[in-house]
Amino acid sequence: MSDHLHPPRKQSTRPERAQDMRPKPDYSPRFPGAGRLTGKVALITGGDGGIGRAVAVAMAREGADIAIVYLNDHRDAEETVRLVETEDRNAIHIAGDVGQEAICRNAVNEVVKTFGRLDILVNAAAEQHEVVDFTALSAERLEEAFRTNVFGCFFMTRAALQHLPRGGAIINTTSIMQYRGGACEGYPTMTDDAATRGAVVAFTRSLSTLLIERGIRVNAVAPGPVQTPLTQPGAEQAGCAPMGRPGQPNEVAACHVFLASDEASYMTGQVLHPNGGGIVAL
Fold this sequence. Notes:
Helix content: 25-40%
Order of helices and strands: EEHEHEHEHEHHEHHE
Distance between the termini: 41 Å
Number of domains: 1
Largest sheet: 8 strands, parallel
Shape: globular
Strand order of the largest sheet: 1-4-3-2-5-6-7-8
CATH architecture: 3-Layer(aba) Sandwich
Oligomer: single chain
CATH superfamily: NAD(P)-binding Rossmann-like Domain
C-alpha cells in the first residue's frame, strides 16, 4: 500500500538510492527474533533505506507490524516492505515529507486505520548539507535541515501521541555530530547537521519528562559514521571511529529495538551511542 499524501520535494542531499549503493549496506538482523515486539505496530520515518530500513526489518523480526514513511524513493520503500514481509509481518509504505505537519497527521491516521493501533514511533528521517564555507550556508538550506530533522520529529510525535498507549515508545535518531559539533575529522562542514542533532537530543530529554506520567518512554540513538545512502562515510569519516570502520545499519538498529522493547522499561530520556568506540560527553 502506498499513499502519496503530499507532492514530495526533491532532496538534493541524498547522494544515492539504497538500491544503487555498492557495496550494499547490511540491513539484515544479525540474530533470531525473540518476540520482544510481538503484537506491536511501529511507524518508522526514513524507512526506505539506511538505518530506518534496518530498524524496520529488525522490529519485524521481533514480531512488530511496520509502517514506513519516506520522501520519494518508491522502489527503495517497496524493497523495505518486501524485507519486512520476508519476516512474516505486515507492512505499508507512505510517501510524504515529514517536514509538513499535515503529512505526519495523515500518515499516523493511515497507520491506525490499517493496523488498529500504534505502539512505537521511530523518527529516523533526516537530511544534511555539506558546506565548506559556513558563510555560504543559506537560510533556505538551514531551514530545510531543521524542517526535516527537527520539525519532522515534533510533527510526527504530536500526531502519534493521540494514539500511543501506556507502555509505548518513541525513539529519535540523532548523531555523533551533536557531541562532536561537526568538528570530528572528516566532518568539519556539517554545522547545520550538528545544530539539528543537538535540538533532537534536547527534544528527547524534555519530552521524556513530560510523558513519564503517561507511561510513554522517549529515548534516542546517536550513531557514528554508518554506511547509508545519506552519509556514505569515506576513509576520513570512518577514521573518527576508534574501530576504524563505518558501522552497518543493522549494528545501529539493534539499539532501536532494545529501546522499543520492555527490556528498556527503566530507560527514558537517554541516548545510546553505537559509534565504533568514540567516547562522548553528556
